[in-house]
Design a protein that fits this description.
This protein has about 350 residues and is an all-alpha fold. The chain is about 65% helix and about 0% strand. The radius of gyration is 36 Å and the shape is globular.
Amino acid sequence: MISIESTTYAACIVSALLFIVALAGLSRHESAKLGNTFGIAGMTVALAATVALAIDRGISGLGLGLLAVAMLVGASTGLQRARRVEMTGMPELIAPLHSFVGLAAVLFGWNGYLHVGGRATVELDAEGMLGIHSAEVIIGAVTFTGSVVAYLKLSGKVKCSPLSLPGKNLLNLAALTAFAALTVWFVIEPQLWMLVVATVLALFLGWHLVASIGSGDMPVVVSMLNSYSGWAAATSGFLLANDLLIVTGALVGASGAYLSYTMCKAMNRRSSPSSRVDSVSLPHRATKPTTVTTARRTPTPLPNCCRMPNPSSSPPAMEWPSPRPSTASQTSPADSVKW
């Protein structure tokens, strides 16, 4: 029997296929417009399926009203900003959108822990999702603060020069080590203070990573943050058991990571998942100096007419033409005037 839930799952599969086709279309200039149309269709199907599933599961009237208001505000804001922005300002437009995705992942992770934590996190622990839960909060917090700093730098509201803290690479590695230790500890014995410390460290790491990069590399940073937002969405899909969110997040994360690698390679930059810094902090690879051999040419002497005179020598004497003898006395005025 066909139900709303089974129809929703089918719609999620169709939406995921539309997203894959959209990504393939956006890879070429000739089919970019068609790929964008497929992406719009996929998102429309996903939103309709989500609202239908929420109504089928008995969402309250207040919740449905808040959902409708959120969709209207988001759609109107997105259309207004997209109509005004130019193609050169796309990174500045996309950066705050990534911050919204990261903030949503952090809020969802905290809401899930506080909702389930009252029951001693039995559900998350039984499903083995505690590690993914911590990773979602960390990736979302890094994406949030990093996207905010990227937007501020692209809009010129903060200094464009990179921030150079002493031992900044060691700070990044120390933060990653602390994340790994807190995640393992959280899986073994989940406590609220661990989630608080992980969130604060992730917010600091996102700010420090992007602040250490100059404005010239911000398009690469925005692409990397796009990848982070995709992985945050994928982890949310695992917690929600939503296949569409997993597929969409994996597509965004993988495509953003590959695009960042391609841009770094084209701009002669180095990209690292742990510390993406500018060219000042990481030395470039030492290359062998190339020796260029040029053939020595003998200058051709100039002709005498084009040579400059020697300033030390005296100028040559000028010869004036001798005056011609006057013949006025031999001719009369009457003969010189002709009528």
